[in-house]
Amino acid sequence: MFSQKMILVVEDNSLNRTLLCQILASDYNVLEAENGQEALSLLKQYGEGISLILLDIIMPVMDGYTFLSIVKADPAYSSIPVIVTTQNDGESDEVAALSHGAADFVAKPYRPQIILHRVANIINLRETAAMINLIQYDRLTGLYSKEFFYQQVRKILLRNPDKKYDILCSDIENFKLINDVFGIPTGDRLLCGIAQLYQQEVKGKGICGRINSDQFVCLIERRWDYSNTYFINVVARVNELLDVQNIVMKWGIYSIQDHSLPVEQACDRALLAARSIKGQYGKYFAKYDDTLRNRLLKDQAITDSMESALDKNQFHIYLQPKYRIQDESLVGAEALVRWIHPEWGFQSPAEFIPLFEKNGFITKLDQFVWDRACAVLRDWDNKGLPPISVSVNVSRADIYNADLADILMKITRKYNLPPSRLHLEITESAYTENPRQIIDTVGRLRDLGFVIEMDDFGSGYSSLNMLNELPIDILKLDMKFIQNETAKPNSQGILQFIIDLARWMHLSVVAEGVETKEQLARLEEIGCDYVQGYYFAKPMPHKEFEALLAEQGASEPDEKKGGALRFLKELPAVLIADEDAAYRKEVVRAFQGRYRVKCVENCQQALAYIEDHPKLAAAVLSLTLSEPDGFSVLERVQRDKNLWNLPIIATAPADAELERKALELGADDYICKPHFPQSLLKRIQRAHNTVVNKERTRFFQDAAYKDYLTGVFNRRGLEAALDSLNKNDLPLAVYLFDLDNLKWCNDTFGHAEGDRILTWFGTVLREHTQEKDVISRIGGDEFVTIIRKMPSEELAQRKGQEICTTVQEISSRRGVEISCSAGVAIMQVGDTISQVLNRADKALYQAKNQKKGSCRLWKEETI
Ligand code: C2E
Ligand code: CA
Ligand code: CA
């Protein structure tokens, strides 16, 4: 709980090493190594306990680059950030360091402020990444999340090539009904109960996860004795969880034959098996077997006829309109493929696209769709219709095609269209597979002028992780996400957050799958830009779309017709405040295409601009500005709360004193003049990323740590909050509150009323505590509250009583008999939190037994 972070300093020059250690010693535990070899053995000893490595490049025995390569290649250490110390501010050193995987660099001679600052920044970034890993666990049930489960299975299969395993998936047949009839909290309770059952059953024999709302999965060592009796027994236990007798569950089993089969596919097969007995009374499980193979036979038939279908023009494109939400004007369309087969009839893409993705035919079909899309655009241009854009789907297989850019350029040239008329939809999940390659390929396409949309965004959290690194223009929110999120008022925070984040990163947002007026209204309210969905129109043959376009085009004023680029947001903006015109000019040139640059030449102008534009990506501030000087701008920015998120990079000639003062006044970074414009660009990107990360952390904390109902911490939030308390907070008063008659309320007035009471109780606790105190709901009607620096036991008891009394008074005034009881215990140095919680629990038990509605203090003699 109360420990300092550890830093490893690797440097052969003992003078330099001592200097670094002195700089760091006040804030960190420092480990020292004289060369790479020594450093490696320290790494072995402390592993990920090391928060950061400061590394010299030129060393005997094993040089820095070799060491860096070893560290980055080893999964056990590769996530530890490394800052490289270089001889001078030369760009080649910087580039070499970064390309070897360093997180940052500092130049010699060492400047304490800079070093401390960079170290803190990098550690902070890494912790954000660690936070995101929390998403490894499913928020509701605490089981592994889908992606993480897959990853773990892969590891297990790799490590145990000779063992035999089964994948079991389960599906609750009438889960939606349970949610509808009993309410979502009850549904959630059921899921948590099932998760626990899974954990008990699988313990020691395998691992389990939740892969979809009501779908659980586990990997266990092979067994042969699956029987109906076994699953009947499990279903009976599931039904006991809610005291109702109508929950129906089905299991599918896939016995893994080939360890190299993708895990997703193995789970799909198990799920396919589960679905195959849907609605069949008395059947509880099915193995993936022959009958299921029939589906595969159909797949085979599709495979056999696909080539000739393309030749015989059986594939067609349909277009689905996209509208601007603000004025509901038509701005574009998505091209979606349809297969009209002479015998099978109209085939939906869901039938064949997944198959084509597997067998590779998708690349050919996609090229056909791109070609058709461009052909209709050319046709419309010739007819003088508004020059809108059309988006096409780009499969992940396309991205791995080295000729992708050439192919796309050839098509747009063939129809004499600028690439910006074509939007490329690339699914979110593609980005998580091989991020580097994807970023490079997509970045190249974007540089060529294609507009990049991230499709199905929100179907996994994975890419939030690296969103700010990705070369994209538009976020396309996944339809399931829209439909779920707009249905659940509690989680709309996430939708709002994503739209804010997008706004902030200068991305446009398209919501797809909009089906109702309510969804549209909600999306408009939170600031979404574009919509697509059945509410407006289904995908239609291109002639029908053309009629729509002609109608809309005719009714629009000319300046609105400039379709294609209307989708795009502007580039992020950077302010350059510098007295040197040549400097400004050089920066503007270097930043072209990356940032919009606004230049000013004195402090007044700088301040005026910053105040009007608090959402700048960064401000580059010369400390030697006139009227009066750069420091005054820094001071002003620090005072203004609205500007705290604005990264400021101070520039000046090399001068330790200026630098110290600038950092002290809140500058985020300092760069000495003269410098390469590229160095400044890198610094800005880093500063900008740090702010994006901060916002993200806040979001993830909210999502993972809060109780969805009351807004106070949940169990995990409580644990995290406990970690952040320190010695100065002692003594702590630890309370356990319990609502005395919530069950009765639920039964009498319904669960909605019960939820309202819980929410209200959360508010009461907040009103009686201070912001830094900790409040959490750890079970149905149990709350833990921790008040810091409690002067005495008597006061602790009195405070608890005050809360109990308030609850009783207010509720009896409202005519509802609600009371709460509490137990409190004091935590001193040397106590563990679980000890103290235990004591509070005992005191609560006494309060409940002796006098409901009261608060008892735990005392040694009371046991
Ligand atoms: P997608 O790219 O996410 O496309 C959106 C899908 O949602 C389309 O289904 C569209 O018809 C459907 N949709 C649009 N609005 C609504 C709505 O309001 N409610 C509902 N429930 N659905 C709506 P479609 O056309 O069946 O396509 C399914 C998927 O097949 C597409 O999902 C895409 O992944 C793939 N696909 C379709 N055409 C192509 C293609 O030419 N190339 C590639 N690679 N994939 C394609
Ligand atoms: Ca799409
Ligand atoms: Ca989509």
UniProtKB/TrEMBL annotation:
This is Stage 0 sporulation protein A homolog. May play the central regulatory role in sporulation. It may be an element of the effector pathway responsible for the activation of sporulation genes in response to nutritional stress. Spo0A may act in concert with spo0H (a sigma factor) to control the expression of some genes that are critical to the sporulation process. The modification 4-aspartylphosphate is found at D56. It comes from [Clostridium] methylpentosum DSM 5476. Residues 6-123, 573-688 form the Response regulatory domain. CDD domains: EAL (cd01948), GGDEF (cd01949), REC (cd00156). Residues 163-291, 730-860 form the GGDEF domain. Residues 299-553 form the EAL domain. SUPFAM superfamilies: CheY-like, EAL domain-like, Nucleotide cyclase. GO terms for molecular function: cyclic-guanylate-specific phosphodiesterase activity. It comes from the Bacteria.
